């Protein structure tokens, strides 16, 4: 005897994201109908928790992920100013990242450095790793509330800066990041998107931009901590890697680095504090095949735990948001606080 589909009932526990177990849904047609019927409850839970886990949907391949995406994220968001390698799974679905499995990925809001970013992210587990590999999330309202007031006030007033040095040897080269071989198209993009650029003598590219460090959610009206400030700061690097990269490329030649818009660098203590606050508020759920996680990219940041074994997590991005619709305290701008060294 078949079981009728049930409405979402949310399980919450310390250290775990809000989770609902979907029962009575045995094929993707029924899954799509369940998602459509329960979309108001899903939206309400997402606004409350920042991220929600759906367990029990019959999602087995990228075509299934695409059908879920088309219900939950009908308006896609392109991946701009790429920062990590991804694989195309087909049907407009991509890998969450192709970075090596031993690497952890720190908490970040997807594309916080672009003028238009995804409002929502969809993750789906096609192959669960044998060990580790969770996609942890953290409520950025809690991060803002728990950071030292002096640091929050400083970032709120001055914003944050991102410096990128594109290289074929470390991280992504500019051709991959901007999806073009034409330097003129890179310059056109940068000019339109408030990014300063500089071509180096060796043909490499350096960019800089100023972005708001806190924004207000356009629907809930809540202020959140929203940036890559700790994620790409030099003090978040493993000390051995930081020393090696600095020796090789110089202090201003790191693939990524961040600072505060007032021009003063973040200290090691500042970054340690940021990462500790993220960690204290982080929740995670081990992946099972078929799991789907929906993340409000403004209310919640996400990362990745190291893992062993095969892992295939699909991602789709949608519900684009313009940063200017989020009442930024600091308007986004190209940034060149001082002449950059040429060597």
A few lines on this structure:
By secondary structure, the protein is an alpha+beta fold.
Layout: helices, strands, pairs:
Blueprint: E1 11-13, E2 16-21, H1 28-37, H2 39-49, E3 51-55, H3 62-72, E4 88-90, E5 93-95, E6 105-108, E7 116-127, E8 131-132, E9 137-139, H4 140-146, H5 149-158, E10 160-166, H6 174-178, H7 183-192, E11 196-199, E12 205-211, E13 214-216, E14 223-225, H8 239-249, E15 256-260, H9 268-281, E16 282-283, E17 292-296, E18 300-304, E19 307-308, E20 312-322, E21 333-334
Parallel strand pairs: 2-3
Antiparallel strand pairs: 1-2, 3-17, 4-5, 5-20, 6-18, 7-17, 7-20, 8-19, 9-16, 9-18, 10-12, 10-15, 11-12, 12-21, 13-14
Helix pairs in contact: 1-3, 4-9
How would you describe the overall organization of this protein?
The chain is α+β, with helices and mostly antiparallel strands. The protein is built from nine helices and 21 strands. The strands form five sheets. An eight-stranded mixed beta sheet has the order 1-2-3-17-7-20-5-4, covered by helices on one side. α1 (28-37) packs parallel to α3 (62-72) and α4 (140-146) packs across α9 (268-281).
């Amino acid at each position: 005897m078949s079981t009728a589909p049930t409405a979402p009932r949310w399980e919450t526990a310390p250290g775990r994201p809000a989770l609902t177990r979907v029962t009575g849904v045995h094929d993707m047609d029924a899954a799509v109908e369940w998602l459509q019927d329960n979309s108001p409850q899903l939206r309400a839970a997402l606004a409350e928790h920042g991220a929600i886990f759906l367990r029990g949907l019959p999602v087995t391949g990228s075509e299934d992920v695409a059908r879920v995406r088309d219900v939950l994220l009908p308006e896609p968001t392109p991946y701009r100013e790429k920062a990590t390698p991804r694989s195309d799974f087909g049907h407009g679905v991509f890998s969450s990242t192709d970075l090596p499995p031993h690497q952890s990925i720190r908490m970040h809001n997807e594309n916080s450095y672009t003028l238009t970013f995804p409002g929502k992210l969809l993750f789906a587990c096609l192959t669960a790793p044998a060990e580790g590999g969770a996609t942890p999330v953290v409520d950025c309202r809690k991060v803002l509330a728990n950071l030292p007031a002096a640091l929050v006030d400083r970032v709120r007033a001055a914003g944050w800066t991102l410096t990128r040095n594109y290289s074929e040897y470390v991280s992504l080269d500019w051709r991959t990041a901007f999806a073009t071989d034409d330097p003129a198209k890179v310059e056109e993009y940068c000019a339109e998107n408030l990014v300063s650029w500089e071509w180096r003598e060796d043909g490499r590219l350096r960019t800089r931009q100023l972005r708001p460090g806190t924004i207000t959610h356009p629907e809930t009206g809540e202020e959140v901590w929203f940036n890559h400030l700790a994620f790409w700061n030099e003090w978040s690097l493993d000390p051995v890697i930081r020393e090696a990269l600095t020796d090789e490329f110089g202090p201003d030649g790191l693939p990524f680095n961040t600072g505060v818009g007032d021009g003063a660098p973040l200290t090691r203590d500042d970054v340690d504090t940021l990462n500790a606050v993220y960690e204290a508020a982080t929740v995670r759920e081990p992946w099972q095949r078929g799991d789907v996680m929906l993340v409000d990219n403004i209310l919640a940041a996400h990362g990745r735990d190291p893992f062993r074994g095969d892992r295939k997590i699909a991602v789709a991005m949608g519900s684009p948001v313009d940063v200017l619709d989020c009442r930024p305290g600091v308007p986004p701008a190209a940034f060149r606080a001082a002449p950059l060294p040429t060597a």
